[in-house]
Amino acid sequence: MTGPVGTWARRIAELFDAHRLRLERAIARRTGDPQTAGDLAQDAFLRLARLPDGEAVQNPAGLLYVVADRIALDHCRAARRQRQREAGPPAEDLPAGAPGADAVVERTQTMARLRGAIDALPPKTREVFLLYHVEGLPYRAIGERLGISPRTVEYHLRTAIEQCRAHMKRRPLR
């Protein structure tokens, strides 16, 4: 076998020798199914081998892993669809996924109480609390923004939590 087809076939054989086990492990990790990984890896090699212009591929190993990943993803999707078909439609006596009216009212009241607790904090403590819990800034960034040390940030956060807890205990749900 000579010519482009023979050269491409040799490159595929070399890829197979060099990457088969690694590829099977990668597929097994992706699918969670080590028994099927060998078949899916073989499918990836076959798809690569069937490329009409395989010699033009700059990075055959990279393409192999991309193809294998797509095959594994397709396998996972097909398995999920099969499980859903086998499970059948959801039972009508299952509870609804949405919270009930009582839970919504209780959550709304709790959030209002929490907003009141945050609003009652001293201005600097409230600012530190919001920068940390709402904006997600780390202590150091908060300290730099406000011109205070990270330990002072920690102090304000501790104070804010204590004051919010006390506020919530003083104003129970009605």
TrEMBL record:
GO terms for molecular function: DNA binding; sigma factor activity. Keywords: Sigma factor, Transcription, Transcription regulation. The keyword rRNA-binding does not apply. Residues 15-81 form the RNA polymerase sigma-70 region domain. It comes from Azospirillum lipoferum. Residues 113-164 form the RNA polymerase sigma factor 70 region 4 type domain. This is Sigma-70 family RNA polymerase sigma factor. Gene3D superfamilies: 1.10.1740.10, Winged helix-like DNA-binding domain superfamily/Winged helix DNA-binding domain. It comes from the Bacteria.
